[in-house]
Design a protein that fits this description.
Chain lengths: 452, 452
């Protein structure tokens, strides 16, 4: 084991070079112009799987971008890990905010800066290097592994559930491992055992049949921007509680012992506020900041627009006003039901002077994984042995809808162990991945493989 | 006189051709790309003034677009009319809603459809043709006239007050006549004796220092779009009364006799609603629809925007949200004071978790002109003689800030006699001017000149 870890420590230059090549492929899944780059990247991943010593490697086409898979199943009687990651990346605009070209990785402050470095190529790479290190040294693995590396995570994994259903037997396993999340802080590893779900709606309020002159008509006609503002303002009371009837009905109480565990996670409010540039935090009465993002559902306005939004003044009374609104959900809220309740709420409070159209975008279920499993325990030990500190047990406010798919389709719980730092700027310019964490993290993954 | 009116009736084809040429010049004052078109249009207007028989014609440059002026002062002892109009037009977007190109006038349902046809080129043209008809027939006018045709009305006339101050003596007169307003309905001419004032502000609410992931941060940070919605929703109570402290302090009661006069103006609520495509009107409790637009102040949202407004879903918690807001004012509200009160209101209700920036765009004072003047009486008679019906006395919900400037700088009251029909679509796609009304209206103006 010490030999393997030494090999890893001696391979840093090679790792860097290989990861830089992986990051150089602009595999932006949302942009049709990059379709061929995404395909090239899938081929590149398949070669990386070969290099790690995996077998039965496939690049399976879907209606969108291909899924790359591989396996090593020579450890009879041992558990099988299904390792999931994605090789596609977010778009890079606004390009002018990048300090260097986004697909030419460079190092700054110990971080490898490039699109996809943290989300998720760097973390996929870590798993492959851990496997490779063990295979190179021992010629075999202590457990069975299967890999699914998809190319559509950044566009909502539209084809992954279908792929899993079509290949259900092939991906039978004991647990899913995903590294597409974060440490709690540098040198503070975390096991993420809960994710919020999501509903995302668009609401359009229509008043008069055309934009009107606000002088000639102002005062006689309901202004749809004002009606929209009133409707949106009515969603929460003064304590931040959501007033949509039935919204909280299925919210499961979090046991006191779990709230205590989450409460023990350090939280520096001053640093948090300063990082965001706000004078005061804000949120639902009765919950701490971490609880507000981890164990409580939300209602947020993601976008709002209507009327004249150009430079200067135009005295228009708009015909329409719209908003994108979303809720993060917690167990056992059901996205379909929340969509219904939210739609009904807005329809019911709209005055007769306007019409309201609600469009459903996408959603996902909340998940909470069990904490008392041998896999969680092994991860805890692996973190301790590599980072020399206790991993925190945290939840995450965001959503990874495929975690619910793994549970529903394959019946598998997911172990989320992320290695990005909180300031990794995923989805933003100058995305970066902290290299010392990556090197130590590869050791974590080797130790994890060995302790199952 | 009958000869002159006959000449007018025989000149329709020529009028149409000349007006079409005037409308072909895209004199959009707000767009720097059209700066040269605006200048060309000023030159075109100066030639139209020459053609009408006016003298001392000038195209006077300003910090923005030029003012075109001319006069005929050979009627000693007779009153002097200062006729004001504007040759600039509104932008044309959204271009795709126009049935034909906006600067290629075409006729549809007896209306000439083009940008500027009603607002205000068509109405300026009418005055010039009335003068021309009298001059051609008699070689002189029964009164003195001065013309000011400006090129910045659609951007708030930023340089007109300065121009008037600089040329105060030159524009000494007895009354201002403006045709930049509407008839009450087809064949229902109106004398507009009141205009609302205006304040126009932009309010920007800033929360976190960057757009945030709505999953990772949603619940802990005030969402500026939500704060903005709450602030805007708080402006009016359930009865439509504005809650900004002090807002109504200077609103002068309208005497019962005047409310009765305004109340006698016919109003077809069903037709009004159907024209706007709304199921229900809406407005301040205790006032009729006409009173709501004529004698009561308003608060309107003219535009609102923030966060993600593209196609699809993006789970962003926006850093900023903004709105354009305006109030129409009635005597004796002062725009400067209302700007202060409104700004103070939004600053005072903003929670500490956001910052609020308020920018003042432009404004204007409300005006009410006296009804018992020889000019009002002459206009009443001219309408009766040409349209064969009594003109209504109405107010207008919109604002023509320069009317207050004429009063303040030159000490002159304004007679507002408009010839656009209510469905003229000024500022909107397919702006149009009703040709039969235009032809009869030129007769009205000729009779008016002769009855002073």
């Amino acid at each position: 084991m010490e030999q393997i870890l030494n090999d890893i420590r001696n391979s840093k230059a090679r790792y860097l070079e290989e990861l830089t090549r992986f990051l150089a492929i602009p595999s932006i899944s949302s942009d049709p112009e990059n379709k061929n780059d995404v395909l090239l990247c899938a081929e590149h991943v398949s070669k990386m799987l070969v290099q790690s010593g995996l077998t039965n490697i496939k690049v399976t086409p879907t209606a969108g971008h291909p899924v790359v898979s591989g396996e090593w199943l020579q450890a009879p009687g041992k558990p099988t890990l299904l390792i999931y990651g994605h090789y596609d990346v977010q778009p890079v605009d606004p390009l002018d905010l990048w300090e260097k070209p986004p697909f030419e990785a460079h190092i700054k402050n110990n971080r490898l800066v490039a699109r996809g470095s943290a989300d998720d190529k760097g973390q996929v790479f870590m798993h492959l290097k851990a496997i490779e290190a063990v295979m190179t040294s021992k010629g075999k693995l202590p457990v069975n592994v299967k890999f699914i590396i998809e190319g559509e995570e950044e566009i909502g994994s539209p084809n992954l559930a279908g792929f899993l259903r079509d290949h259900k037997a092939e991906f039978d396993a004991d647990v899913v491992i995903i590294s597409d999340s974060q440490m709690y802080a540098e040198n503070l590893p975390a096991i993420t055992y809960g994710l919020r779900g999501l509903t995302y709606l668009e609401i359009e309020v229509t008043g008069p049949n055309r934009d009107l002159h606000s002088g000639s008509f102002g005062g006689t006609v309901a202004n749809p921007a004002e009606i929209l503002a009133r409707m949106l303002a009515s969603v929460k009371d003064e304590n931040g509680h959501i007033q949509i009837p039935g919204f909280y009905d299925d919210v499961k109480d979090v046991p006191a012992v779990e709230r205590a565990l989450l409460g023990s996670v350090p939280f520096d409010e001053v640093a948090y506020r300063e990082g965001l540039g706000v004078k005061e935090l804000w949120g639902e009465e009765g919950y701490s900041p971490n609880e507000r993002t981890w164990i409580r559902p939300t209602f947020e306005i993601n976008g709002i627009w209507g009327g004249f939004t150009g430079v200067g003044a135009k005295t228009v009374l708009p015909s329409k006003a719209s908003a994108k609104i979303s809720s993060r959900l917690v167990p056992d809220q059901d996205p379909t039901k929340i969509v219904e309740l939210t739609t009904r709420y807005f329809q019911s409070i709209a005055p007769k002077s306007v019409t309201v159209k609600v469009t459903n975008h996408h959603g996902g279920k909340p998940v909470v994984a069990p904490l008392k499993t041998p896999y969680v325990e092994a991860a805890r030990k692996a973190f301790k042995a590599s980072f020399h500190t206790d991993a925190l047990f945290i939840r995450e406010g965001g959503s990874i809808p495929i975690v619910a798919d793994f549970k529903e389709i394959l019946g598998l719980d997911t172990l989320l162990i992320g290695f990005a730092l909180p300031d990794n700027r995923a989805h933003s310019p100058n995305e970066n991945f902290h290299l010392p964490t990556m090197y130590t993290g590869i050791e974590t993954l080797v130790i994890l493989l060995n302790s199952l």
